[in-house]
């Protein structure tokens, strides 16, 4: 009898077929209905392995999964896993770092450029048939060239965003991180500063710090009120790093000029969120790593981690 593998993710067909040769695969693209969630819980009572994302692995779910040996997250962020409880149970947890760094940094830069040039507003104006005359000063954007880019969380993705800013746009880079990054200081001429200095000096701020008990609610009105008159704030990390209600209020009352957001406190963004109707916000639906190539590489890595663990070998990217 084959072991049960539960997948909650969209996998490309070749990989799914390959896994079906070895496992009894129970596959959900997402847990969208009560029926899916009930079937998922039932399958987890048999599962030896889980591949997926956007499933909160808490103590209750672990208790309902007595045979589980490996959880292979198709993400680098592991904020929705109770890592201590997983490790206490002797379950191996893996993630997908590195393979998504460039695509996610591209999304960060996409938001930096869209906000700088007010691309959503301009697009809406054209599509609504309101492009009657050449845009004037009240619709102009701002340059990136020569400006200061502040990175909150100078890890893999933060450095990849900084590298695009420095080499592509001649931006000065400052960053806040819990440890110094001498390599980035050397290659990017970057400078480590505290959060207050970063929010005061940066023209563009990009958040790439993981969500953890220390970073939850890290950014709110106190920091946002330090920003320059035309400062732009981009979050591609996790929504909960920012106090979203305070961000909304700062955007409304002019404390903060503009924001670009790929992540939100609650996802999908609730239909009554004020962010939906604000001109000075660009919203994306958490597509940081969502390219064919990158999602394919993430799924391949998650599958390799799973097979390694079940074969008694070391996973490639353990958490
Ligand atoms: N929007 C999206 O689709 C995606 C979002 N992400 C998010 O980006 C995050 C970062 O990913 P990577 O760069 O690969 O991680 P990483 O581990 O390479 O970088 C994180 C950096 O933050 C620093 N850090 C952690 N806690 C800190 C704290 N309390 N104060 C100051 N610095 C702190 C670390 O020292 C490290 O340098 C992920 O955890 C995930 O939440 C990642 C991929 C896609
Ligand atoms: O990898 C992550 O952490 C994501 O947010 C999705 O790619």
UniProtKB/TrEMBL annotation:
Keywords: NAD, Oxidoreductase. InterPro entries: D-isomer_2-hydroxyacid_DH (IPR050223), D-isomer_2_OHA_DH_cat_dom (IPR006139), D-isomer_DH_NAD-bd (IPR006140), NAD(P)-bd_dom_sf (IPR036291). Residues 110-288 form the D-isomer specific 2-hydroxyacid dehydrogenase NAD-binding domain. It holds the Pfam family 2-Hacid_dh. Residues 7-319 form the D-isomer specific 2-hydroxyacid dehydrogenase catalytic domain. Belongs to the D-isomer specific 2-hydroxyacid dehydrogenase family. This is Bifunctional glyoxylate/hydroxypyruvate reductase B. It comes from Salinicola rhizosphaerae.
């Amino acid at each position: 009898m084959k072991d049960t593998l539960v997948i909650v993710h969209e996998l490309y067909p070749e990989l799914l077929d390959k896994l079906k040769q070895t496992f009894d695969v129970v596959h959900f693209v997402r847990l969208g209905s009560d029926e899916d969630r009930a079937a998922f819980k039932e399958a987890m009572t048999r599962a030896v392995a889980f591949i997926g994302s956007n499933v909160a692995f808490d103590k209750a779910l672990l208790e309902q999964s007595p045979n589980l040996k490996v959880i292979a997250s198709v993400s680098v962020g592991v904020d929705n896993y109770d890592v201590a409880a997983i490790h206490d149970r002797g379950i191996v947890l893996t993630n997908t770092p590195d393979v998504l760094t460039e695509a996610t940094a591209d999304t960060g830069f996409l938001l930096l450029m869209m906000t700088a040039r007010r691309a959503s507003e301009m697009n809406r104006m054209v599509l609504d048939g309101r492009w009657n005359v050449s845009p004037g000063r009240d619709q102009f954007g701002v340059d990136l060239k020569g400006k200061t880019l502040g990175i909150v969380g100078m890890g893999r993705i933060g450095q990849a965003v900084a590298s695009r800013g420095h080499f592509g746009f001649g931006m000065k880079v400052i960053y806040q991180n819990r440890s110094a990054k001498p390599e980035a200081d050397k290659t990017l001429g970057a400078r480590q500063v505290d959060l207050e200095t970063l929010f005061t000096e940066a023209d563009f701020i990009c958040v790439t710090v993981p969500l953890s008990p220390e970073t939850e609610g890290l950014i709110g009105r106190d920091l946002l009120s330090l920003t320059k008159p035309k400062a732009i704030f981009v979050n591609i990390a996790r929504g909960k790093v920012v106090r979203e209600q305070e961000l909304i209020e700062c955007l409304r009352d002019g404390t903060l000029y503009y924001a670009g957001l790929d992540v939100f406190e609650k996802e999908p963004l609730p239909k009554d969120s004020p962010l939906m109707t604000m001109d000075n916000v660009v919203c994306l639906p958490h597509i940081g790593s969502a390219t064919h190539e990158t999602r394919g590489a993430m799924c391949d890595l998650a599958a390799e981690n799973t097979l390694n663990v079940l074969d008694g070998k070391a996973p490639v990217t353990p958490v």
